[in-house]
């Protein structure tokens, strides 16, 4: 919808130049793909990374809710579901206190930085957040599916 409504597309040069958001990612280095670690350690590290990433994405999704008014209801639903999933996965971690949750000051600082953008950059930022959130969720689903298919994980 972003590409159609605002002509913000994947190959836009502005998008490539602007992508300094440091959005969460699920990668092999983060422990979301098994390596030489014990499986329990792998599982815990992966779940911590996923839960932390979801908590971080909440601030970005709140920004989208403010700037993408035509989809406010859908984004509100996405925010709620993301928060619920973050809490659920956090409860599966051996030590839930190890899940990194941005404090209110950090969240407000990020929101202020995002709000300071010009209108055309807002559209690109919204697109980048949604694109990276989609990628994060695709990898999260794969990781959780992998964990669920093993003996020691039940969801």
TrEMBL record:
Cellular component, GO, one term: interleukin-6 receptor complex
Keywords annotated in UniProt: Acute phase
Molecular function per GO: cytokine activity; interleukin-6 receptor binding
Cited Gene3D superfamilies: 1.20.1250.10
Superkingdom of the source species: Eukaryota
Family designation: Belongs to the IL-6 superfamily.
Protein name in the entry: Interleukin-6
Source species of the chain: Indicator maculatus
């Amino acid at each position: 919808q972003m590409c159609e409504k605002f002509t913000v597309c994947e190959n836009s040069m502005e998008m490539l130049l602007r992508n300094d958001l440091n959005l969460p990612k699920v990668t092999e280095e983060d422990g979301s793909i098994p390596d030489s670690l014990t499986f329990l350690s792998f599982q815990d590290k992966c779940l911590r990374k996923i839960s932390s990433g979801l908590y971080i994405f909440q601030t970005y999704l709140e920004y989208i809710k403010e700037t993408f008014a035509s989809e406010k209801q859908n984004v509100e639903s996405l925010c709620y579901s993301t928060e619920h999933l973050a809490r659920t996965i956090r409860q599966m971690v051996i030590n839930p206190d190890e899940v990194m949750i941005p404090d209110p000051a950090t969240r407000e600082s990020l929101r202020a930085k995002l709000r300071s953008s010009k209108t055309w950059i807002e559209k690109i930022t919204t697109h980048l957040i949604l694109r990276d959130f989609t990628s994060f969720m695709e990898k999260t689903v794969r990781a959780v599916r992998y964990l669920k298919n093993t003996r020691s994980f039940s969801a």
